[in-house]
Amino acid sequence: NSSLRSLDLRDAGLDAADPSGELVPLLAETLATHATLRWVNLDGDRLMIRQLIGAERTEKLDFSGKELQASSAVVIGALLSSNTTLKSLILSHTSLKSPAAAASIAQGVESLARGGSLTHIDLGASGVAKESTSRIVQAVTGTDLTSLGLARCGLDEKHGSLLAECIKRSGKLATVNLATNRLGAAGAKPIGDALKVAILSLKELDLSNNKLGPEGCKSIAEGLKFSKAVQSVDLSANKAGPGPFPKAFAIAIKSCPTLTSVNLRGNDIGSDAMKGIAQAIAIHHSMTSTDLAANGLTDDCAKALAGVVRASAMVKLDLSENSLDAKGQGGKELAEGLKVQSKLQCFSLKGNPLSQLSLQELSYAIRDNKTLTEINLEGCKLGKEGKILMDRAKRAKLQILM
């Protein structure tokens, strides 16, 4: 058919009708060479054929959130094999659980990597099998890739060396998202070593919720000490604890002048161990965002945290879900920090039970601080008097969450 422009096969049941897996690749081959066909619909979403094969130049293809059936994924992977212009491929949250679908996508990415155009790939929560993920990481290693997204991809400690090699050999890799995997301490060790090599390229690293533990977090901190470019580090929910990590990370902060964002939420670091980190952040001239929520912090480190409040570049600070006023003094220390005119705009003390004295001091500080635009006091047990104090502290362009 030399005039066909579209093909709708939504009700054809290709996945069920092709148990051997031979029909869909044959269809993909036909689609790739058809002179007039513009799109095909296999499961509810149109696949733009000329964009996939690169005949119609496009730099980005975004399939995120689409419930792609196996047949669609196989066609996408097959058509990408002839594309030499695509720069960004996003397949996050696409449920690519079929082995045939994952293998086809991996093959497509391998072809893109050989073509040299691909700079960004995101497979986060796509369901791609570990074997195919490994193929993809190997394919992009040593290329001009700048961003790699593999969050929720089922990666474990065995993938650590593979990922480390990718970080070391990909000279332009700036963003790596490995959140919510199971790399563990063993997987973190080679990645930490790789950070000592990728000192000029890597800018954003997300290893949140990876079961790294104290030693794994320390490995990452040791690697970060050598970085000359890193801007954002997320190590939240890794059970870092008060052991070897805090001291190493405090040194890393001092060694990274480019660092702007740190997330250590939910690591049970404790007050004594957090003091060194807080002191390092307080004297850092580039840090704009810090999350230290849910770390078992008490009044004992409130004075050090007040220094973070006063930090010269700090814009957003989250100290929620701690016990910073358990002795009735922590809130007062933080209020003193707020009285200094800084750049702090968003401040969260959510879930910290605050005494009436601390609330009074906070109300004065909030009223006088002209840069603050939002303060979160939800779950702070304000009581009637506390709410009255906060109502009096309200001013234009300031939101007080209670």
Short synopsis of the structure:
Keywords: Repeat. The protein has 402 residues and is of the alpha/beta class.
3D architecture notes:
By secondary structure, the protein is α/β, with parallel strands linked by helices. It has a domain of 120 residues. The chain is 39% helix and 12% strand. The chain is built from 15 helices and 16 strands. It has a 13-stranded parallel β-sheet with strand order 4-5-6-7-8-9-10-11-12-13-14-15-16, with no helix packed on it. The chain has a three-stranded mixed β-sheet with strand order 1-2-3. Strand 9, helix 9 and strand 10 form a beta-alpha-beta unit. The longest helix is centred in the N-terminal third of the chain and has 17 residues. The chain is elongated and about 80 Å long. The termini are far apart. The mean pLDDT is 93. Keywords: Repeat.
Helix- and strand-based class?
Answer: alpha/beta
Average pLDDT metric: 93
Strands across the major sheet, in which order? 4-5-6-7-8-9-10-11-12-13-14-15-16
Span between termini: 67 Å
Q: Biggest sheet, open or closed, and with what strands and sense? A: 13 strands, parallel
Question: In angstroms, what is the radius of gyration?
Answer: 25 Å
Shape: elongated
Write the layout of secondary structure elements.
Layout: E1 6-8, H1 14-17, H2 23-33, E2 39-41, E3 46-48, H3 49-53, E4 60-62, H4 70-80, E5 88-90, H5 99-115, E6 120-122, H6 130-140, E7 147-149, H7 160-169, E8 175-177, H8 184-195, E9 204-206, H9 213-224, E10 232-234, H10 245-255, E11 261-263, H11 271-282, E12 289-291, H12 302-309, E13 316-318, H13 330-339, E14 346-348, H14 356-368, E15 374-376, H15 383-393, E16 399-401
Parallel strand pairs: 1-2, 4-5, 5-6, 6-7, 7-8, 8-9, 9-10, 10-11, 11-12, 12-13, 13-14, 14-15, 15-16
Antiparallel strand pairs: 2-3
